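tool_log.txt
---
The assistant was asked to compare two proteins side by side. It first ran the structure predictor on the initial sequence, then on the second. Raw inputs and outputs are pasted verbatim so the downstream comparison step can read them without reformatting.
(1)
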Amino acid sequence: MRKNIIDGVKPFSEFYFKTCYYHQMIAALSCFGIAAENVLMNTIMLVHDDFVIEDKDFYNDDELMSRLGCKLKKCNVAEKMLVRNIDKGNPVIVGIDCFYMESRPRTYMKRHDPHYILAYGYDLDSDTAYVVDQDFANDSKYKTKTMSLKALLYMSEQMRIGKLRRRHTSRIVIRNVRAQSERISVYDHIPSAQIKNSGAAAKRNLIELRRLLVSDTEALLNKISLINDYIYFLKRYYCTLTQSDMFKNKSNAERLARLISEYGFLQAAMWKISAKHENLPDGQKDKLSERIAEIMTLEETVYARIAEECK
């Protein structure tokens, strides 16, 4: 064949999830009708005191794929190999070096950054690769695109033999037609007591954040980087929960959406403190303290709902 495109690809663009590699894994699985939720619900974040987050995957990538009736095969990408697999219905997650990617001016000929693109189609006559990608680093809006097939192959080759020297970073995603796909949910395996402990730690961290904000500016500024990371990852975790059946009910979904929104407001305030390296004015402190109290109330209901789903 001179042209072929795998049907059914659905880029995941609801929010930024972990890394570009996992966005491409989700898009590849969509070609087989496997929902994004199965990748998202393999992950959990457990909260500990002192703004510590434990990010855990229940299954590693190979185990997850096996339970979804698929497998990942490491490969080095070349034109014949790419065409052969797409003709078989196997999308390919292609590792590339962004140093050679003209559409990314921040890294093009400036910085060597590894990146992943999903190739799910080709047109040899027009030198076209059909891909899933974002417009810039950390952009959550993944979409279907076209790009030069030769350029894709060159960027992948440079990932392998250039400065980064990363061999076998690309993956063929293969569907095992004889295997059935399981429903994946880490919450089937996590004790409810662990979730309740996580919720209690999240509440203590908010109480401590409010104390730092109101009465200990020096300690707040010393911990601001840690706090920003904590808020970022916890907000991302709550975003993953929006894709779970646990929060499909309207009232549960609304509470979760409000919690994510409030964490977004808190995140913006902490970024402001970090950028200026000074605390907020007293009036703004009071308003933020009120919003922290609202977060505590919402968070308590969210953790109670998660605990209901656990063993």
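(2)
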Amino acid sequence: MNVLFTYSILSAIIITIFYCILLLLPSSAIPPRISRRIILTGYAVSLILPMILIAIPHISPCAGTVPNINAVMIGTPIIGIADAGQPLSTWHIPSAITTLNTIVTLCMFALTLWSIARIAILKRSAMPCSIDGATAMVHHRDTLAPFSWGRDIFLHSDDAADPRHHLTIAHERAHIIHHHWIDILTGSIITAIQWYNPIAWRILNMLRDIHEYQADAYVLDNGADAYDYQMFLIEKTAGARFASLANSLNHSSLNKRITMMLSKKPRRTPRVRIASAAMIGALAIGALSFSGIAQVINDMSASPFDSETASIGKVKDFSLTVNTPATSTRLDEKPDEAMVEPEIKPEYAGGQIAMMKFLIENLRYPESAMKEKEQGMVLVGFNVDTDGSISDIHITKSVSPALDKEAMRVVSLMPKFNPGKQDGKAVKCVCQVPIHFKLN
């Protein structure tokens, strides 16, 4: 689920980059075929590149397996001081977001499959007829405008009997020749994955317009009179559309199509601007691969977090959550006096993230505890001496003997800390580390 969310966000970023490239290009000087190629390239990159970013360990936001621990995810830590007397919170906003994303994505894919099924059902009930050298599927469904899907042209019986049916056939044949149905299917997959991204929907509509421009150009290039064809299109705009996947005769804005037919074809493509836009796109995608955006997105989608805990991640069927040192108090010479926090708290060598990494690399969920389904927070206390060494490791909050023993074992393996200081001098301090064992 988290991988799907990460994939979706990365794909949305990439498709947005290509949309910006389209905006940089002068629409009046770019032929529809060039715009189509840019969009299809954006579709291909947005589908493939996120898989590469996720799959390759060096740049994957989901990489980071540790020996003897499978699928370990290290999230962005949120540092805070935990109360030893309270259990760790399990407020999982990212889980709710990723669950919602999965549900909506599956619904969008279901709608796409339903559209394909409806076309298949219509094809079974239609009658194949040879019209102007093309095989058309003639049906009797009222008010349905002509459309094409795959290699098939679908016509209502009234459109087949229309003396101008050759215009309809030529128009739909153009969609088939250019394989526009593959574009629409790919765009539908993109919008299903990026259902929340308005740019993905905008690009799909742009692609539909481009298809109609190409189909109109094909009809005119094959000898149709421009005025008669435009009047023919105006009459056909009253028909209902079939499915969002199909290339329908009246899918695109008629005003834009007529404007495109009346406009002059550009003599030359502004290659410098296209090259510049392509370079910008390549640099942006390269930055996406190496700037750590993928890692940040994965941290958002993979880590349960709140204001008190720092998530370490999920291991097979259990998760380990480790807080940064919760409390740090100075040991006074007089034990009856209240403990005073040192000015500088003791710190793990390398910082808190390094400490969490050490713990996750060495923690093992005891098999006996897993069999008994034991889980909960173990609070481990220990002293950090003036030389940074760890001593007097003990349990201040117990869960079970097996979990207590494992928590104490991993704490005993930690290297020296940077000692706490008071008035510029190293002092002996007491620290606590809460470790939360949880079975899923």
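---
observation on (2): The two ends are 15 Å apart (CA to CA). The longest helix spans residues 93-125.
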